[in-house]
Amino acid sequence: MRELTHFIGGRHVKGASGRFADGFQPMTGEVITRVPLASKVEVRAAVQNSLAAQPAWGATNPQRRARVLMKFVDLVARDNDKIAEVIAREHGKTIPDARGDIQRGIEVVEFCVGAPHLMKGEYTVGAGPGIDIYSLRQPLGVVAGITPFNFPAMIPMWKFGPAIACGNAFILKPSERDVSAPLLFAELMMEAGLPPGILNVINGDKEAVDALLDDPDIQAIGFVGSTAIAEYVYSRGTAAGKRVQAFGGAKNHMVIMPDADMDQTVDALIGAGYGSAGERCMAISVAVPVGEKTADELVKRLIPRVEALKIGPSTDTSADYGPLVTAQALERVRGYVDLGIKEGATLAVDGRGFKMQGYENGYYLGGCLFDNVTKDMRIYKEEIFGPVLAVVRAKNYEEALALCNDHEYGNGVAIFTRDGDAARDFAARVQVGMIGVNVPIPVPIAYYTFGGWKRSMFGDLNQHGPDSIRFYTKTKTVTSRWPSGTKEGAEFSIPTMR
Ligand code: NAD
């Protein structure tokens, strides 16, 4: 068993609190690492280290900062196999899926290489008599990110990429379930030429998170995780005067119109509902066929596909998905399947009996499919975060749209149809942040922004794309007049542009 570390000031630092979390390998159920859980004192030491390093990095010209990120992109490509394997072992997702996790993160770092352009301000010559005005963007200082278990590569990169490109020092508190990829990224950033202290990784649980939220020297917090914790982080962080963006849970619907291409729809639902064992904030967890005929056809076609899903250990590159992340997650998801039966839904495919030969202690669950789910059921209202798809039958388009709009979450949604009018109307009226038209997982590409609505997001600015540059910088506006400008004498009323 390996004892992991924090990463502070450009080097690995052993945990000093005496508290550790067991790091499990979901495919076998074995404990493979010990993860140190930082105390307030250790968090403060990381903040002080970043505080000392940030001014020089903030003053480094943006092109040079971008070059470090360019080098980092190359180094991640060089070590891709090693990083993907470590993610598969600690998270449980398959290696091809782990590669996707890395790639979606790298695409955002590539976008951040354009930060010198994106940080440019504006200039107006002659805004008044002898007056010029310009605006500029400056880094915030020391900022922190708190990230979830389900994308141990992508989400940390979505946070530290733009923050560092903009000249901030970044403290990452990754999920305690899978910390090795973030630690590898910190090492690679050093190799790419990042000065020590600009990317510190502090491992921990609530104690470390609270210490970051309360620390007066941290200017902004980017959080991703479940809604209850997102709301808590947002409230406590903003009460402490910080800028906070906190992304939470999801229940993503896919509306299937009667004219949808059924082959395409079923393929999309199988991938988006069960890929990564459903542990994605953009997974489709609710299918909403419109009309009984569409619903009957959909369920008839889905059943054999769900039964045929290939579940395997994370190292099996031909598996559709691997184990869930922890024994607790497995128990929670199974509990929801039991609950759905009690609530009166029809369990059309029951994956609870699935056993992985040779990996009996791993956290595996076969694909589960519920039909006849209704909107009052907890299995509809709550995020399950597992390989469980619920079919909610809607009488017509308006009823399907209302389901999406009335749900407390609003992260992603999709509509499958051949009707351009319906798709257009849906995109305009649905109260959800990211919409797919015949695209089941509409995660925007790096140069657009990512973020949900309603209780899937607390804060104003989204992740990646132009919003990320705004989030990690503050604007300054300079109004100047030189002595040679017009002399107007003392002025006692508010200056205006006459
Ligand atoms: P989580 O909320 O349990 O943990 C997220 C982070 O918060 C971790 O770093 C964890 O250590 C910390 N944390 C946990 N409990 C805490 C507490 N009581 N006080 C302070 N900090 C605490 O989430 P998770 O299980 O790691 O991730 C899955 C969740 O993340 C799902 O709800 C999923 O939908 C969501 N998610 C959302 C997005 C998005 O962009 N909206 C993306 C990925 C995942």
Structure notes:
There is one protein chain. The chain has helices at about 40-60, 60-80, 80-90, 95-110, 115-120, 155-165, 180-190, 205-215, 225-240, 260-275, 290-305, 325-345, 380, 395-405, 420-430, 465-470, and strands at about 1-5, 5-10, 10-15, 20-25, 30-35, 125-130, 130-140, 140-145, 170-175, 200, 220-225, 245, 250-255, 285-290, 345-350, 370, 390, 410, 410-415, 435, 455, 455-460, 475-480. With about 500 residues, it is of the alpha/beta class. The chain folds into two domains: about 1-250 and about 455-475, Aldehyde Dehydrogenase, Chain A, domain 1 (3-Layer(aba) Sandwich), CATH 3.40.605; about 250-435, Aldehyde Dehydrogenase, Chain A, domain 2, CATH 3.40.309.10. Strands 15-16-17-14-13-19-20 form a seven-stranded mixed β-sheet, sandwiched between helices. It has a six-stranded mixed β-sheet with strand order 10-9-8-11-12-22, sandwiched between helices. Helix 2 (about 60-80) packs across helix 7 (about 180-190), helix 3 (about 80-90) packs across helix 4 (about 95-110) and helix 4 (about 95-110) runs parallel beside helix 6 (about 155-165). Bound molecules: nicotinamide-adenine-dinucleotide. Nicotinamide-adenine-dinucleotide binds near residues 146, 205, 250, 281 and 456.
Brief overview:
With 498 residues, the protein is α/β, with parallel strands linked by helices. It folds into 2 domains: 2-248 and 456-477, Aldehyde Dehydrogenase, Chain A, domain 1 (3-Layer(aba) Sandwich), CATH 3.40.605; 252-437, Aldehyde Dehydrogenase, Chain A, domain 2, CATH 3.40.309. 39% of the residues lie in helices and 22% in strands.
